[in-house]
Amino acid sequence: MTQSARAAGRLVLPALVLLLVVAVLAVVLLWPSPKHKAAAPPPPSPTASPSPSPSPSPSKQLPYPWFPVGACLDHPKLSPVITVARPQQCDGQHDAESIGNPLLPDGLLKESQIALTLERLCQPYAAAAEAKQGGGTWFSLPTGPSLKYYSQGYRDASCLLAASDREAAPS
C-alpha cells in the first residue's frame, strides 16, 4: 500500500465514526416523542337536582334570601316597608347581621321541621355572637329554604342576629 492510500485510510475511519455519531444524534433528536395521554375531562358541573347529602349550594344565587357571615340587612319581620330581606351597609342603620351559615341536614319533611332545625343550628352562632357583644338582649332570626326549595336540594341557611324581634323596634 502506498503512503497516500494509508493516509486516506486513516481519514476514512474517523469520518465514518463522525458520520455514525451524527446519525445517532439525528435519530435521537428527531425521533417522535411518546404521545402523552390527554388529561381527564373535568367532572360535570353540579345541577339543580336534589343532592343525596347536605352540601353547599353550587352558587349563592339562591331562590330565597341568603347572607354570608358579616353581611348586614333589613328583614321584613323587623321593617314595615319591605317584604323580602335585603342587604344594607353595616356602617348605617340595619335590622340584623348574618353570624353563621349552616347547612340543613337531609330528611326534613315539613316546614315546622325546617324551622326547628334552623333554630337549633343557629343557637351556637347566636350564643357566640351574644358573648362577643358583652351584654344586651339579642334575637336570633334563622332564615333558610322553604320546604319547596329544601325538596329541590337547597340546604344553605343564614343565622341572623338582631337587637329586636319585632317590627319598628329600636335597632
From TrEMBL:
Residues 36-60 are annotated as: Disordered. Residues 40-57 have a biased composition (Pro residues). It comes from the Bacteria. This is Septum formation-related domain-containing protein. It comes from Kitasatospora acidiphila.
